[in-house]
Amino acid sequence: MAILGRGSMKNKQKEDELRETNDPKYSHLNENLYVEITAIASAPEAYQRIGQALFEIKRFLVPDYFDEIRQQQLRELG
């Protein structure tokens, strides 16, 4: 599992430097932010592994409008 694309590096200055090199290895830095999940295994095992990875990251990708942090922030604003 890898987070790739613009904004995927903690160091913005280093990301900008790598983007300017035009090295194909860093071409993903010119794309929108995305997650890449890969599995090297037999087909049934790969499907299981990718399914588990999707299950784990789904909570970060789909907003939960009722989570405690969001509710606290709304109370502070109101």
Secondary structure blueprint with pairings:
Blueprint: E1 2-4, H1 12-20, E2 34-36, H2 43-61, H3 68-77
Describe what you observe in this structure:
One of its GO terms (biological process) is regulation of alternative mRNA splicing, via spliceosome. One of its GO terms (molecular function) is mRNA binding. It is a single chain. With about 80 residues, the protein is mostly helical. It has one domain. It has 3 helices and 2 strands; from the N terminus they run βαβαα. The protein has helices spanning about 10-20, 45-60, 70-75, and strands at about 1-5, 35. Strands 1-2 form a two-stranded antiparallel sheet. It is flat, with a radius of gyration of 18 Å.
